[in-house]
Design goal:
homodimer, alpha+beta, Jelly Rolls, elongated, DNA-binding
Chain lengths: ~190, ~190
Amino acid sequence: MDKFLQYLSRYINLTDHEKTIIESRLKHRNYLKGQYIVQSGDICKCHSYVVSGKVRTFYLDDNGTEHIVMFGIENWWAGDLGSMITQKPADFNVQCLEHTKVIQIYYEKLEQLYEEVPKMERFFRLIIQNAYVNTQKRLVRNYSMTAKERYLLFCDEYPEITQRVPQYMIASYLGITKEFLSHIRNQIAKEAKS
Amino acid sequence: MDKFLQYLSRYINLTDHEKTIIESRLKHRNYLKGQYIVQSGDICKCHSYVVSGKVRTFYLDDNGTEHIVMFGIENWWAGDLGSMITQKPADFNVQCLEHTKVIQIYYEKLEQLYEEVPKMERFFRLIIQNAYVNTQKRLVRNYSMTAKERYLLFCDEYPEITQRVPQYMIASYLGITKEFLSHIRNQIAKEAKS
DNA sequence: CGTCTATTTGAATGTACTCAAAAGCGGTGG
DNA sequence: CCACCGCTTTTGAGTACATTCAAATAGACG
């Protein structure tokens, strides 16, 4: 909990009273490896802050192919925001890739919290603003870079994730097949030799 | 201006006093067809609300290819948010595709406005939240749908834009070449006949 | 009518995908 | 301790989707 409040304080200054209110609106929860925080089709009832562990958000298309939308590790948020704000069935699944501790805020409690502690509007504006800017960057990269370039950039930007998730999931995140990523890696290895 | 306040009131309730403050922080501006609101390399100093007209946001990659990130028409916002919040050089260009009227809010004024009218935090949280959710959806679509499916969906979702912008720009938005879009349209036309 | 820009068409090419099979790797039980 | 099982990664051949380049056609505007 302290860690979470510390994280909050990177964005907003809170009084002790406000901290108490915030704490009372949150819920701690643990998930096992493989468990789902959100399942597509369900309405996403809460947004989850990852305290420890590792999650992936993915979309299952009509052909049954999984597309990883994002990974989540310490200090990241996970959930289907679109589903939560519209209270419509989720498009995405959020699954834990290892034992994961989260702090959750439920939709109603969040709305309530915005009233009680208006600074939280600012906090989430800042968080979502960053997420938006990053997603837009990623979109552009998919258009303007080759798969190989995207892979190298990913390894560079998220070394921690690169090491902690299986390769086929990175392929899925990059929007390519696992076979093709293997190909790319092979190619990179050859280049390194010469 | 009334139109803008009406638009604001779809998200937040404002007192007359608050409206006056907001008005005083905004700037009206007109652009001609072809003019740039933001140029990549410059620091984006303001965010622009499109009152009328039409803009495109695009990224110019290392090969000199343009990639359209988004279009903007009435009631949309345009700018390089990433540049504005970090005060670093913009990656994107925002160009007017026709004579365009905008209402602009400059970075400093916006920060000031957040202090003066905290409801604006809520307003922009809601706006950016929507934008984020939409961008994420688009990202997933690019992974899970073929170019043809994306084109048909685009025509369906943004009929107004489909009619008002040249085809090669739609191709750029979809992440394909103008030639290939022409191909796709040809194919669709053939299917319609049979 | 001529010019400029946008769109179409087609052929050759390239990037990434599919499918199938083999190899690697880690854990578990005999 | 090794054999086996399931899961991940690699490899390769054939294929599909999308690009590039070049040239022709169509449209818009003065």
